[in-house]
Amino acid sequence: MFNYISIFDKTNYRIKCHIFTLRFNFKRRFIYLAFGAIAFLLAYSGGAEVDINKEEAENVKGEFVKKIEGIDQNGIFINNVMIALVMFIPIVGIGLGIFSGFSTGLIFSALAETSSYLQNIPPLAILLTPFGIMEIFAYGLAISRSGMLAYNLVKKKPWREYAIHTVIEIGIIVILLIAGSIIEWQMIKQLDGSVTLPDI
To answer: How far apart are CA 56 and CA 53, in angstroms?
Structure first.
């Protein structure tokens, strides 16, 4: 009887320790996610603060308009998910995430230069929409996973330790960007397609 109780206590202890480890890892993952999202937002803010003249703004706006011409919710999703997936590449994904954020901010700066409507709107306000928050979360997740994958590769950790987590996070990002593209497209239709800021 004593042995059974002893085995039960040890098993219960292991279960509690395992649950604690999962919670700790989740908390740590959230911190990495926050760093990824902040990196994207800082890059976006930097791009939005670039002072460009009228001619340069018109050129940037023209390229932007060509890119989104005829776009719908499927196009928005494909554009955003392709960017997010490339962000998973170790190290390269971090650079792409920063470049994407900066480019998006630069587009906002160009549109603000050529549109009186956007001149009085803070750059970050554009991202404080349901689809904007979803995209920031998705990109932050991908950027941070890029750094984590690079660390795992350098440390030569077994791929099984991070492969499942990576696949799960890809699934989360796909779901978020599907929902975000639907919401964004509905908002664009309500605004008659006059405002949209997909990433490049």
So the answer is: 5
